[in-house]
Amino acid sequence: MKRGEERARKLVEEGCVKRLLFMPSERILWIVVGDEGDNLVDKDVNFCTCSHFYFRTIGQPSNLCAHLAALDLAVASRRYESLTMSDAEYVTVLRLFFSDLLYRLSRRA
User: Fold this and answer.
1) Contacts of 12 (CB under 8 A, 6+ apart)
2) How many whole angstroms separate alpha carbon 80 and alpha carbon 33?
3) From CA 23, how far away is CA 93, in angstroms rounded?
4) Which of 30, 45, 57, 70 could be bridged to 8 by S-S, CB 3.0 to 4.6 A?
5) Pairing relation of β-strands 81-86 and 27-34?
């Protein structure tokens, strides 16, 4: 088993995959909690906000980051935490998420 697959299984087993369901629109955001913080993941467009995605997955789609692989496993096995929120909270959640992401990125520079 590859290291990324092992990491993905561990993320699922540890309950790191979260589905945020916003009502009444039924919009969904997927978050996978990783070593560096929360990662926004979208399997429909094969996207993750982690650094592995930017440095290894873009240009090499077969090289999925552990967060995308964990999302696939979690959805297939229905092993994820589901949180329901109001549509009024959608923009706030995105704002907080991206604020945290920008902070993490600025610490790397």
Assistant:
1) 70, 73, 74, 77, 79, 80
2) 11
3) 14
4) 70
5) unpaired
pLDDT in tens, 23-45: 999 999 999 998 888 999 999 98
Nearest Cα to Cα of residue 39 among 54, 27, 49, 52: 49
Domain boundaries defined on the chain? 3-108
Residues 53 and 37: beta-carbon distance below 8 Å:
no
Note if the pTM is more than 0.90: no
d(CA 64, CA 11): 14
Range of lowest pLDDT (2-6, 29-33, 95-99): 2-6
Give the separation between CA 92 and CA 98, rounded to whole angstroms. 10
Q: Hey, what amino acid is at 104?
A: R
